[in-house]
Amino acid sequence: MSANVQKLCETTREKLKIAIDKVELFLNQHALPQLVTEQDEETVHFYEGFLSDLRHVLVFSEMSYEKLGVALRRATFDESFAQKALYNVYHYGVNNFFYPKNESYSEDGRYAYTGQDAIRFRKKPVRPARDIILDITKLYEELRDDLTYYENDYLTEKRMQNQV
């Protein structure tokens, strides 16, 4: 089991690094003035929320990336620490991506298996904003698929251990 957890930490960390690099590049190149093409209040509010959500995704992803790095660098692999780190990737990183606080976009599961983009924006975004979300969606979908266990079974297992 430990080898599987270690491998999952490695692949998760690699995917997070790709997402972090893409989001960081986007945020370094795009601020509110570059995104707001129409100066109406609704558009400004949409992009304020969009940028805030993207910053949250970045912070949670960076924190998870660091925790996984700690887990992998330890002289003796601590499976319990690693599992908690993987749970946090799912719980904070993946969930914050798919359920952003400001709801500038959302996932529409009806499109997930049609080959179409499953992400729907509340307001039609400018191309760079649309592209960054669609670009990293695949990574977060893969992370969600890889880590689904940690959303359900991991918590159940931890609760049972505390009751014993």
Summary?
By secondary structure, the chain is mainly alpha-helical.
Care to describe what's here?
By secondary structure, this protein is mainly α. The protein has a single domain, classed as Butyryl-CoA Dehydrogenase, subunit A, domain 3 (Up-down Bundle), CATH 1.20.140. It contains five helices and two strands; from the N terminus they run H-H-H-H-E-E-H. A two-stranded antiparallel ribbon has the order 1-2. Helix 1 (2-29) runs antiparallel to helix 3 (41-73), helix 1 runs antiparallel to helix 5 (127-163) and helix 3 (41-73) packs antiparallel against helix 4 (79-98). The longest helix has 37 residues, at 127-163. It starts with a helix and ends with a helix. The model has no long low-confidence stretch (mean pLDDT 88). Pfam families: DUF3907. InterPro entries: DUF3907 (IPR025013). This is YpuI family protein.
SSE arrangement:
Layout: H1 2-29, H2 32-35, H3 41-73, H4 79-98, E1 105-107, E2 119-121, H5 127-163
Antiparallel strand pairs: 1-2
Task: Characterize the biggest β-sheet.
Answer: 2 strands, antiparallel
Alpha carbon gyration radius: 17 Å
Neighbour order of strands in the largest sheet: 1-2
At the first level of CATH, what is the class?
A: Mainly Alpha
Question: Average pLDDT value?
Answer: 88
Name the helicity range: over 70%
Number of helices: 5
Secondary structure tally: strands: 2
Distance between the termini: 22 Å
CATH architecture: Up-down Bundle
Strand content: under 5%
Give the SSE string. HHHHEEH
- Number of structural domains: 1
Which structural class best describes the helix and strand composition?
A: mainly alpha
Indicate the low-confidence ranges by residue numbers. none
Q: Rough shape?
A: elongated
The third-level CATH topology is Butyryl-CoA Dehydrogenase, subunit A, domain 3
Organism: Paenibacillus agri
Pfam family, one: DUF3907
Protein name: YpuI family protein
InterPro entries: DUF3907
